[in-house]
Write a structure and sequence with these properties.
Elements lengths: L1 E4 L5 E4 L6 E10 L2 E11 L3 E2 L6 E9 L3 E4 L5 E3 L5 E4 L5 E3 L5 E9 L6 E5 L2 E5 L3 E6 L3 E3 L2 E3 L4 E5 L2 E5 L3 E5 L7
Antiparallel strand pairs: 1-17, 2-3, 3-4, 4-11, 5-10, 6-9, 6-11, 7-8, 7-10, 12-19, 13-18, 14-17, 14-19, 15-16, 15-18
């Protein structure tokens, strides 16, 4: 099963801390609780991240110079196209924001296996099995279907992606696709 999601399918919502806006790309829930969520957001200034109890986060800067994540007992650098994982229930602050940055976020319930998040270069990705999401940073084709930059592909099972540029590939925990 494959779902091809475009901007018309995404949902804009305020951040939990009220200091920005998230573009929710896809989400899976069970019994009213989030299992996983894929989203995009902009970090335009230094500030606190929202707290998400029981959630693991993974952030990949898509555009802009990046910034530091400070406050979890150590600092992490969020550089462009380098995924960074951190706990969602630990207070974290973006620092050193010198220019607006757009980022791609993966959130998963802590009781599930952590997702694999990689940035793939132009070329071909073949997925034989499992649940995966591919977020296109450039156009391409999936199973012969045209995909534009900014589109999201969710799949359970086989996938053959011919990319013209980079994409973010996410292996998701075994939970239902929305």
């Amino acid at each position: 099963m494959m779902r091809h999601l475009t901007a018309a399918d995404f949902r804009s919502m305020p951040w939990a801390n009220g200091k920005g806006v998230t573009l929710e790309l896809a989400r899976a829930d069970r019994a009213g609780a989030m299992l996983w969520r894929l989203s995009r957001a902009s970090v335009v200034e230094d500030g606190d991240f929202s707290i998400f109890p029981g959630i693991e986060r993974n952030l990949t800067v898509l555009t802009g110079p990046g910034f530091d994540l400070v406050g979890m007992g150590g600092d992490l650098r969020a550089d462009p196209l380098r995924p960074v994982a951190f706990a969602g229930d630990v207070p974290v602050r973006a620092q050193g924001v010198t220019a607006p940055c757009d980022d791609f976020n993966v959130m998963t319930a802590r009781h599930l296996p952590r997702p694999g998040v990689t940035v793939a270069d132009a070329g071909r990705i073949v997925i034989a099995d499992g649940i995966a999401a591919l977020y296109a940073l450039a156009g391409g084709q999936v199973n012969g279907q045209a995909v534009a930059a900014g589109d999201l592909i969710l799949t359970e099972g086989a996938l053959d992606w011919q990319m013209q540029g980079p994409a973010i590939a996410v292996s998701l925990p075994a939970a239902p696709m929305p």
